[in-house]
Specification:
alpha+beta, Alpha-Beta Plaits, 31 helices, 16 strands, about 65% helix, transmembrane, ion transport, V-ATPase_116kDa_su
């Protein structure tokens, strides 16, 4: 039994999303896999689109080029969304170029006009005989234009817009307008200025800024639409995949729900074959096949067409069959017995009947005789030709009109289980009708009897032996095929999406076929034995086809369940246009690392990335503890306190041993221990859900009670072989008569337990790689030194009558110095960590540890005195019973005392032992806070 959790390896696997099914199948092959949900869910949307959807991109920060580049990575070349985006981007670029040109011209013009003291609203307008205008000209024409404009007396300012382009700001008199216009037409082109430009400067500037913002907002809206469309498409696809998986899972479950019906049908078909075999070969043939000998008389009776006693049949079959089937068989048995007496009657009636007349035989239990004769008294048109009574059954041959005969049969059916056989051409034809009905009922009874026997033995392997001896390979293969359902090796889903749909289709077919073959098999129960063999061949063929469908559905059921279970733990990342990868991260036992890699490489066609590395004890990881043997019962004791972390010792063995020992010490009694042990064994075996606890909890409680009972027996023997509070021998240790000795034992036990706790804390820190912490911790190395020397010093103080002067004795001086040195070492280490880390937390922790060493350790030690106190209290109940016996009687007093002890003290002792384990002991070393290793898959059978 290892004391530390099993070493784990952390893995990360990346595969193309189309191979997700193969990846899950490979992980299932390993089985011991703990999958982790990603700490940060990776989005299939590119980061830019995520930022847009989350509102982190504003019009001023939008990068349209990056947006288009990102969209081209995730969308197909001819994708309508991408085409729309490219079209909008082209439009945006044109707007941007136009905007840049216009805005630059407008800004420069506005600034120049402001410098001239001219409002843009006056541009191109006459103002006190002066016109101000602006025109655009090229590098080649600018010189000539300037020269001619200046010659006519026009004032000109030249503004460079871009390489090869200039704006000329003109100021001229209205009298020059015609000459200036001619020059403008010859060398210049007009500026295309928006109407809103012709306003005052501040309004123009503000409008320019608004125009820039409008274009950016429009671009952002376009990008938001694209991001939303992509997100919705991806989410729809994800939901669709999950819906398909859930639909497949429901389809598989619908097939599982029909498996009992399929098994019942298969057993019915086998039973019918065995009934035919018995009809052809006799009862002995069934005995050689393994028929229960208790059923032989019944089968003999059916084959020999003998009357069967319903009480005998019920007694022989009742404990094996359901009440519904027994009721059905008893009904069929009445019909069978009725047909037997009808057969006897018809053989006697041949001599007294007329072939031209209509006859009816009515038969059933003998209680119908009186009612039948009463009805005949009312209807004189019907004559009773013959009647017969035998062993509680009655039959009558009636002659009369068909309608009258049918009315009498109808009236009797309302009150009795009867058989009414009617024929128009004389009684001779009734003989064949009775023979056929009797053969059908024999087949039904035989099949049901054999079915009950087969159902009883199906799990024991007897059915395989029966079919082997029968020599029917087709039936043998059918049962083998059914028995192997769900255990067939999984086939890789090469086309995951397509095959899921195929599984749904096959599941629907399988359910339909199961129901069809069940209905057809039920009809075969009414077929006479001599015709049954041919009718069964079709049922066998349909069962074979149905089982193939069921196999195809169920062979992937575990993979489908796994896919649904771990769906939240799979992370999908979308890269490039149609490339997606599935990322899986988790942990496996380090010993399974090689096996996992082999399974992945073998079963997954393409692995993009695989890495598995052992996790050091100092790093966080799930806690994997093999719960085998007794540990599976007692681990629940630890889990009440918390899950051990990956770098901690599993305290289960220590918790269990100490709890059991302390329980026995406080509850030492051979008789009570025996009762407790027997109760624990019973609870462990039956797993009875006492007080609503789970079955697993009941088993754990039972195992703990069993060991606690054994411990009580051992301590009861030490306490004078105390049996139900009555000592039978001289005690080795008497809690009530040797109080100081008992207290000393309790204190020594507590000292040993606390030393063990600090030693475990030391080991835990070493495992975690904190060697200095292990040595200088107040609950580690220095704590052990302080406590052990403190025990020596404390012992001398107590034995000296609490004389503190003993501390100055030479023999105690080294121990006193060690006490002081251990405390100073803890404080010094805390001070060093504080200076090193720059945080006062370490120093405060060191101070608290020193206080705990001084106050908590002595207090915890004294807490173990309760072991002695409860041991004494246990014996006091025995003394109390002795005193009470004088007045209440010995039996009554001891009975009352024992009931009180078992009911109250037994529970109280358990609570005290649990407290000492969970608080005084585990608080020194056990941190808990670990994560349980939870295998995501069930092992493949």
């Amino acid at each position: 039994m290892t004391l530390v959790p099993e070493k784990l390896a952390r893995f990360r696997i990346v595969v193309p999303s189309e191979h997700e099914a193969e990846l899950l199948a490979a992980l299932r092959a390993v089985a011991k896999v703990h999958l982790e949900e990603p700490l940060q869910e990776g989005s299939t949307l590119p980061e830019l689109f995520v930022e847009v959807l989350e509102g982190r991109v504003t019009p001023s920060t939008l990068n349209f080029e990056e947006a288009l580049s990102t969209a081209r990575k995730v969308l197909r070349e001819k994708d309508p969304l991408l085409l729309k985006l490219e079209e909008l981007f082209t439009e945006y670029k044109k707007l941007q170029v136009l905007r840049d040109e216009k805005l630059q011209v407008l800004r420069i013009l506005a600034e120049q006009l402001k410098a001239l003291g001219v409002s843009p609203s006056n541009l191109r307008r006459e103002f006190h005989g002066v016109i101000i205008d602006a025109v655009l000209t090229s590098e080649e024409s600018v010189g000539t234009a300037l020269g001619e404009l200046l010659r006519v007396g026009c004032s000109v300012r030249k503004l460079k817009l871009a390489p090869g382009e200039y704006v000329l700001l003109l100021t001229y008199l209205t009298t020059m307008a015609e000459r200036v216009e001619n020059i403008k037409k010859k060398y210049c082109s007009p500026l295309d200025l928006p109407e809103w430009f012709y306003d005052d400067y501040d309004k123009v500037r503000k409008r320019l800024e608004e125009e820039e913002l409008r274009i950016r907002k429009e671009a952002l809206d376009i990008l938001l639409s694209i991001a939303s469309a992509i997100r919705d498409a991806l989410e729809f696809e994800k939901i669709s995949r999950e819906e398909i998986l859930e639909k497949v899972h429901r389809a598989v479950e619908s097939v599982r729900e029909e498996l009992p019906r399929l098994e019942n049908t298969l057993l019915r078909v086998i039973s019918l074959h065995l009934a035919v075999h018995a009809h052809e070969k006799g009862t002995r043939a069934l005995e050689t096949l393994g028929l229960d000998k208790k059923l032989t008389p019944i089968v003999d009776g059916v084959l020999g067409e003998k009357k069967l006693d319903d009480k005998l049949v019920k007694k022989a079959l009742g404990k094996y069959a359901k009440d519904e089937l027994i009721s059905e068989m008893l009904y069929s048995l009445k019909i069978y017995n009725s047909l037997l007496i009808a057969k006897q009657l018809v053989s006697e009636a041949k001599q007294i009947t007329d072939s031209e007349k209509t006859y009816c035989i009515i038969c059933g239990t003998d209680d119908l005789e009186q009612d039948l004769k009463a009805l005949l008294g009312e209807n004189t048109r019907i004559k009773m030709k013959l009647e017969k009574e035998s062993d509680d059954f009655y039959a009558a041959l009636l002659e009369g009109d068909q309608k009258d005969l049918e009315e009498i049969a109808k009236a009797l059916r309302k009150r009795f289980t009867i058989v009414a056989l009617l024929y128009r051409s004389g009684v001779e034809s009734l003989e064949k009708q009775i023979a056929d009905s009797l053969s059908s009922k024999k087949a039904e009874l035989l099949a049901n009897i054999i079915y009950i026997n087969v159902s009883k033995n199906k799990r024991k392997g007897d059915l395989i032996k029966v079919l082997t001896r029968l020599g029917r390979q087709d039936l043998y293969k059918l049962w083998q095929s059914y028995s192997s359902l769900g255990t067939t090796a999984e086939q890789a889903l090469l086309s995951w999406h397509f095959q899921l749909k195929e599984i749904i289709s096959n599941a629907e077919d399988a359910v339909r076929k199961i129901r069809e073959v069940d209905e057809e098999t039920a009809l075969l129960l009414g077929v006479p034995l001599h015709e049954l063999s041919d009718a069964l061949s079709g049922a066998v063929s349909k069962l074979k086809d149905t089982l193939q469908k069921v196999h195809h559905v169920l062979q992937h059921s575990a993979l489908i369940e796994s896919s649904l279970k771990v769906r939240s733990m799979l992370r999908e990342l979308r890269i490039m246009r149609e490339r997606r990868v599935t990322i899986v991260e988790g942990y496996i036992p380090a010993g399974e690392k090689q096996r996992m890699e082999e399974a992945i490489r073998k079963m997954v066609p393409r692995v993009l990335y695989f890495r598995a590395a052992e996790v050091p004890r100092s790093e966080p990881a799930p806690t994997y503890i093999e719960k085998r043997g007794l540990r599976k019962y007692f681990y629940s004791l630890t889990s009440l306190r918390g899950i051990p972390s990956y770098g901690e010792i599993d305290p289960t063995p220590f918790f269990t041993a100490l709890f059991v020992a302390m329980y026995g010490m406080m509850f030492g009694d051979v008789g009570h221990g025996l009762v407790l042990a027997l109760f624990g064994a019973w609870l462990m075996k039956t797993r009875y859900r006492l007080l609503g606890i789970s079955e697993r909890g009941a088993a754990s409680l039972g195992a703990l009670a069993l060991l606690a009972g054994i411990s009580s027996i051992v301590f009861g023997a030490l306490y004078g072989f105390s049996v139900f509070l009555k000592p039978l021998a001289h005690p080795i240790l008497s809690p009530i008569h040797d109080i100081y000795g008992m207290m000393a034992v309790a204190i020594c036990f507590g000292i040993a337990q606390l030393m063990l706790a600090m030693l475990l804390n030391f080991v835990n820190r070493v495992i975690a790689g904190d060697l200095t912490g292990a040595i200088f911790s107040g609950m580690g190395g220095m704590g052990i030194l302080f406590y052990s020397t403190g025990v020596v010093v404390g012992y001398h103080i107590v034995t000296s009558g609490f004389n503190l002067g003993v501390l100055s004795a030479p023999q105690l001086q080294p121990f006193v110095y060690l006490l002081l040195a251990s405390m100073l070492a803890v404080l010094g280490h805390g001070f060093f960590e504080w200076r090193k880390a720059g945080s006062s937390e370490k120093l405060i922790h060191a101070v608290s540890e020193v206080l705990e060493m001084i106050i908590a350790l002595p207090a915890n030690t004294m807490s173990y005195l309760r072991l002695a106190a409860f041991a004494m209290a246990h014996e006091v109940f025995g003394i109390l019973a002795e005193y009470m016996s004088a007045t209440a009687g010995e039996l009554t007093s001891y009975l009352a005392a024992n009931i009180l002890v078992l009911a109250i003290e037994g529970i109280a002792v358990g609570i005290q032992a649990m407290r000492l384990v969970f608080y005084e002991f585990s608080g020194k070393f056990f941190k808990g806070g670990g994560t349980e290793f939870r295998p995501a898959f069930i092992a493949v059978r």
